[in-house]
Amino acid sequence: MNLFYTTPDLVTPKLLRLTDQEAKHATRVLRIRTGDQIFVTDGNGKLFNCSVSEIHKNDVTCEILDVTLEERKSPYITLVIGLIKKRDRLEFAVEKCVELGADEIIVFRGDHSEKGNVRLDRVESTVLSAMKQSLRLFLPKVSFAKDLSAAIDARGKSMSLIYADETIDKGETQHLLGDQLMLVVGPEGGFSESERSILKERGGVAYSLGEKRLRTETAAVTITDRYKNGLLL
Amino acid sequence: MNLFYTTPDLVTPKLLRLTDQEAKHATRVLRIRTGDQIFVTDGNGKLFNCSVSEIHKNDVTCEILDVTLEERKSPYITLVIGLIKKRDRLEFAVEKCVELGADEIIVFRGDHSEKGNVRLDRVESTVLSAMKQSLRLFLPKVSFAKDLSAAIDARGKSMSLIYADETIDKGETQHLLGDQLMLVVGPEGGFSESERSILKERGGVAYSLGEKRLRTETAAVTITDRYKNGLLL
């Protein structure tokens, strides 16, 4: 099964359109034809079962046969991940976290991040592919924060703050439960002392992922899986 | 902290040697000098605290200052993963599973594996790097099996068989506990009917990783983390 994506503004009660990359992918790579039945999501919880009615170069029109609405699974997870220089590692982390259910992703420049910029367009395209690949119906929002404070201050009041900390013992770890969780993972090299103070001042709780040293992307994937999927020890 | 690796045959009661790639890496990349204190593991649970005594081109001799012995953490996990064509995805899966504690890795050619060969030397080198990076002291064994039967028949009698199955409901999932677990993850495209029969005939138990579709490498990483680190629902 292939899942396509369209923005909510291209959906009317009876018809929806795929445009740009999605239309190209549908017609040139997957070679859909008029009359084919396809699944489309608006990235906002709706799954449309459609019949393709018109195909133009960059525009595909579909008749909506039926719609199902999925509720977002609780807890809402905002993953905050330190910028890592190797682009494939960052994109891999993001891809896996979306597959596992992250609802929002913020990449921040940590004090220990190596120089280098994030290509936000590439991260967004990774997020979109991962959503479709894993048949998820909510498109995670992606943003960049210039530092850790900017990332965590953007959260709502009811969002709990949890950070992966390799310096604490597993026995000391605490679990914050809640409907909205912000999970923070530092870059390679971990948090600076100043970042650690910020996390504590903002009420952050340290979570140990185990006694061994994990790479940033591994920490991001396991903390997302554990919190989103209710696997806490 | 950097961790180096040497094979048990290069260790005597008072001295040990680093050779080949490890010696080159130590001298040329990390630029160790005579008198430096370094940590070395034999990949078999021993951690040597050493002082570098002699440096030659491809051979470094170290004096052993003290040794600590770590016990292997139970359960012993053999990860059996279907060959995936994209080499970086396979190597990524292997790297993450080693970081998370997999004890042994078998790559098998699944009925749905796309054509392509596995470069076992590259997988081994990924395993070695991941062990050192995560400061683990047990070097996972890596092997290739021509098909699923060959992979699972190699296991010992007391090893339980668990396979990631996306076709069952989470409610139906069972947990097999034990000291020795073989965790099987299919290639992209999943298991064939014949492979499914083999898994059932051999007493395999299906485990659901959730209701969404996960890529092979994501399934491998999460099932390893969940079973090795005791995170079962």
TrEMBL record, chains A, B:
Specifically methylates the N3 position of the uracil ring of uridine 1498 (m3U1498) in 16S rRNA. Acts on the fully assembled 30S ribosomal subunit. GO terms for molecular function: rRNA (uridine-N3-)-methyltransferase activity. InterPro entries: Alpha/beta_knot_MTases, PUA-like_sf, RsmE, RsmE_MTase_dom, RsmE_PUA-like, tRNA_m1G_MTases_N. It is found in: Cytoplasm. Residues 74-224 form the Ribosomal RNA small subunit methyltransferase E methyltransferase domain. This is Ribosomal RNA small subunit methyltransferase E. It is an enzyme of class 2 (transferase). Pfam families: Methyltrans_RNA, PUA_4. GO terms for biological process: rRNA base methylation. Residues 18-65 form the Ribosomal RNA small subunit methyltransferase E PUA-like domain. Its EC number is 2.1.1.193. It catalyses: uridine(1498) in 16S rRNA + S-adenosyl-L-methionine = N(3)-methyluridine(1498) in 16S rRNA + S-adenosyl-L-homocysteine + H(+). Keywords: Cytoplasm, Methyltransferase, rRNA processing, S-adenosyl-L-methionine, Transferase. GO terms for cellular component: cytoplasm. It comes from the Bacteria. The lineage of its organism: Bacteria, Pseudomonadati, Balneolota, Balneolia, Balneolales. Belongs to the RNA methyltransferase RsmE family. It comes from Rhodohalobacter barkolensis.
